[in-house]
Amino acid sequence: MANFNIATHPATFDLRPERPDEVNSTLDSLVHAGHGRIKKAVSGHRRLRSVVARIKRRGKRYRSMGDRSLREEVDRLREKMTADGLCTSHVIDSFSLIREFSTRILGMKHHPSQLSGALIMLQGKVAEMETGEGKTLTATLPAATAALAGTPVHVISVNDYLTSRDAENMGPLYRALGLRVGFVAHGMSPQEKRNQYLCDITYVTNKELVFDYLRDRLTLGERSDPLQLQAEYLYARQHRSRDLLLRGLHYGIVDEADSILIDEARTPLIISGSHGGDDEKQFLSEALALAGKLKVDDDYVLNQAKRSLVLTETGRKEIESAATQLGPLWNGLVRRESTINRALTALHYYHPDEQYLVRDGKIEIIDEFTGRVMADRSWEQGLHQLIELKEGCELTQKRETLAKISYQRFFRRYIHLAGMTGTAREVAAELWSTYNLVTVKVPTHRPLIRNQLPDRIFSDRNQKWQAVVKRIRELHDQGRPVLVGTRSVAASEELSEMVSRSGLEHQVLNARQDAEEARIISRAGEAGAVTIATNMAGRGTDIVLSDEVRALGGLHVIATERHEAARIDRQLAGRCGRQGDPGSHEAMLSLDDYLLEGRQDELATRMVRQVAEKFPALGDFITRWLMSRTQKSVEQYHARVRKELFRQSQNQGSLLSFSGRLE
Question: C-alpha distances in angstroms, 435 versus 87, 156, 640?
Fold first, then answer.
């Protein structure tokens, strides 16, 4: 196996290494796509198995050593890797040592599939590992190996809970190897963050990391380059590098890579400042009131599939007429129409307990991909203030963009990037075309015994919810634990009320209970337990089963809606049947679920209902086909949105580079 090309030099604030922006031409993209197909065809599984076997053999040598001797071996290896780089023989030594330390300190020994996944990530690829295969422990191998070679490592996760948990649980292993481990969480002071980023290995969420990067770009200001920073560091009394949080983008390991690199890549990350006063508040209040008077189809047309709307000519004239009776802020054509457009968007596409929570008089955004609240985040261009007005909350000041960057552009700047996830095959081509990441499937440690039951289709939500409650009762009476997945906070609470009326005890896990996630998930595998959850569903955590529950058939998962990406459905199903445990899952769906709502021709939907009433089996088949077709259509649309955002981001990068400016 070729050497692992991870850089092996320590970094300081003044150098801030990162990969420069690259803009792909059409020819570059075609060549790149062909290269990706070749690399995918040559997965190297045979060579991986050979290296894994050598790691296991080398481990026998360390097993008989005392702790002191092992630490001396680590020190010697550290010197070798700093001098020679990550050649295969050094990686084998490193993995064997880390594995032995993990066995002694954590009581967990990396199994062969974890060794394979770790080797894949050290090669700068995405390891697709089935849910429950132990990705947290797997990441310790490439992270510690790169850190021992002198490369700062970021292990990037989707939320603060997983970040702090993984840093705490894996910390004893890293410290035994002589490495410093830290984690960055929302709410930390700049100095606290700076200290954490100085560690050899830093656990951090994707959003916090990107925002800290943007804060550093604001600190640097315009027309800064590495030579200028280095000169400041050497000669200036007050140099900006002291105020920077990060020390470059060296090696990033992205957990839940499909969620972070794909799902969340549709929205750029923005740092903004406040502006506006009473005049702005009055203007937005008038816009919301006017939007409420406009008539759908006459004054504007909704596109549910794209969650967008278009003003008609009649609507434009109505707005123009109303503007003559309002203040001077209504004089500008672009300003008034764009604001009305956002006001209509706030009314039609943003709803409490779905896109946001109203808590303590404030609007809290719910992350649509994780189901968690995004603290201290706000929508831009007045949308957040319009929603505050709609909900009767105290108005915050309008936000003005100071700096922004797309996920695609940010993660391409890592000198070395790798990832791991349980669901990547559907987006493998996009991971390669955007991030140069090849996806390699890792065989499971134990055979999967997860049982998939047929989908059940109902004509409306009410029938579906009644059937779900009945199904929960059946499984509860058998003593099996049940996890029910819902699309939104509102849906989870609606089902919770029905389950309560049936007399069943249960737990609810959504954005309102995010602080109690660990406690709720720790009990979700108990005999007879019933857990109703949104997308959170304890992603990244194991639901531990007792021997009694295993004998009964394990955890049963019920999906109550199809999501906009099939990968999210597979993630929910992956909560059961982990690490060789038994488990089963099924979907209970209806014709008026969100996926179909507003996205299909009403006549076609009525025809499907009529067919289902007369020929249930045929109706179920057509509905499943309709949902699958709609899901693929939505996935393709989102892929186009990401592609267009990436194209715009690259064009913006070219313009800024030409002008000598930063983000």
Answer: 24, 15, 16
646, 612 in Cβ contact below 8 A? no
In terms of C-beta density within 10 A (0-12 exposed, 13-18 middle, 19 or more buried), how is residue 344 classed? buried
CA distance 129 to 362: 39
Q: Indicate the angle between helix axes 135-148 and 112-122, nearest 10 degrees.
A: 50
Classify residue 310 as exposed, middle or buried by CB count within 10 Å of its CB (0-12, 13-18, 19+).
exposed
Instruction: Kindly tell me the sign of the dihedral angle through the C-alpha atoms of 389, 390, 393, 399.
Output: negative
Q: Give the chain's largest Cα–Cα span.
A: 87
Instruction: Tell me if residue 521 falls in helix, strand or coil.
Output: helix
Q: What is the pLDDT of residue 305?
A: 66
CA dist., res. 633 & res. 566, Å (int): 11
Query: Is the distance from CB of 580 to CB of 447 less than 8 angstroms?
Result: yes
Angle (CA) 28 34 35, round 5°: 85
- Rounded to whole angstroms, the Cα distance separating 288 from 275 reads 19
How many angstroms from the chain centroid is the CA of residue 649?
Answer: 20
What CA–CA distance (Å, rounded) separates 330 from 315?
Answer: 15
Taking the CA atoms of 36, 37, 42 and 48 in sequence, report the sign of the dihedral they define.
Answer: positive
DSSP β-ladder status, 356-359 and 308-311 = unpaired
For the chain, report the end-to-end CA distance as a whole number of angstroms.
Answer: 39
Lowest pLDDT segment from 215-219, 327-331, 392-396, 476-480:
327-331
Cα four-point dihedral sign 90, 93, 99, 101: negative
Angle (nearest 5°) at CA 492 between 304 and 363:
65
Report DSSP state, residue 21.
Answer: P
DSSP-assigned beta bridge partners for residue 585? 452, 557
Work out whether the CA dihedral 6, 7, 12, 13 comes out positive or negative. Answer: negative
Give the three-class secondary structure for 183: strand
| DSSP single-letter state for residue 223 | S
Strands (E), 464-545: 482-485, 507-509, 530-533
**DSSP letter, residue 422:** S
Q: What angle do CA 32, 36, 42 make, to 5 degrees?
A: 145
For residues 122 and 139, what is the distance between their CA atoms, to the nearest angstrom?
Answer: 10
What pTM does this model have? 0.81
Q: What is the three-class DSSP state of 143? A: helix
Distance CA 417, CA 58 (A): 28
Q: Is the dihedral of CA 566, 568, 570, 572 positive or negative?
A: negative
pLDDT digits (tens, 9 = 90+) for 285-307: 999 999 999 999 899 998 876 77
Look at the alpha carbons of 379, 382, 386, 392 in this order and tell me if their dihedral is positive or negative: positive
The per-residue pLDDT for range 18-53, each reduced to its tens digit, is: 887 766 655 555 555 555 555 555 557 888 999 999
CA–CA distance, 460 with 451 (Å, rounded to integer): 26
**How far is it, in rounded angstroms, from Cα 325 to Cα 80?**
77
Of 535, 454, 534, the residue nearest 495 (C-alpha): 534
- Token pair, residue 485, equals 């997945």
Query: In the structure encoding, which two tokens stand for residue 106, read together?
Result: 């954590």
Q: Which tokens go with 628?
A: 């699958």
Find, among 400, 424, 543, 546, the residue nearest to 483 by Cα: 543
Which residues in 11-41 are b (16+ Cβ under 10 Å) and which e? Answer: bebbbbbbeeeeeeeeeeeeeeeeebeebee
Are the C-beta atoms of 195 and 182 separated by less than 8 Å?
yes
